[in-house]
Amino acid sequence: MASTTAILLIFLLSVSSTTFVFLCQGKQLVVEVKDAPKLPKLKQTQLQFYIKENFTGPDPTGVPIAQAASTNSSATQFGLTYVFDHPLTLDPETTVDVVGRAQGIFSLTSKEIVSTTVLITFIFNEERFNGSTLVVSGRVESGDGRKELPVIGGSGAFRFATGYCDIKPYDIGGGLELPFYNIYVRHYY
């Protein structure tokens, strides 16, 4: 009985000293739980812009960074991955009215059809939203017509953002198209 009590006492001392050391080091999952602050009024904002994509020439805004060994033999270019830093403009014809940047990554992710999985951060420099961001992520199939991507977050004026992007092609001639983004976003501002 005495040896069982001694073992139990040693065990409790080692557990409590380990817990004390752990708490003293500040390593804990939950630091604090409290009532959330009151959020500003919920707003809905509609944004429209063109993305000026450029994958060729001496100063491209999108470049390939990786591909699988089998990418070149794939009908869908499965595994090809790009990073990009494209300007956002209000006018499809010029780059004078840049209101932000689209920075991110996309990969061709289907072996059956041409489709991309994208992660885009829109960084705005327009007065009202200067420095604010929206983050969009999802899957887009190639082909004609409209596409849709979810807004999954944001920062600055777009904190707690949710919504969606309606993307349609804008024909600039010569068989070339620019993506026109129409974004509907709900956020607290």
TrEMBL record:
Annotated Pfam families: Dirigent
Localization in the cell: Secreted, Extracellular space, Apoplast
Domain of life: Eukaryota
Main localization of the protein described in the UniProt heading: secreted
Signal sequence region: 1-17
Record keywords, A-Z: Apoplast, Secreted, Signal
Keyword rRNA-binding: no
Entry-linked Gene3D superfamilies: Allene oxide cyclase-like (2.40.480.10)
Function, in words: Dirigent proteins impart stereoselectivity on the phenoxy radical-coupling reaction, yielding optically active lignans from two molecules of coniferyl alcohol in the biosynthesis of lignans, flavonolignans, and alkaloids and thus plays a central role in plant secondary metabolism.
Family: Belongs to the plant dirigent protein family.
Binding partners and assembly: Homodimer.
Protein name, as recorded: Dirigent protein
Species this protein is from: Zostera marina (Eelgrass)
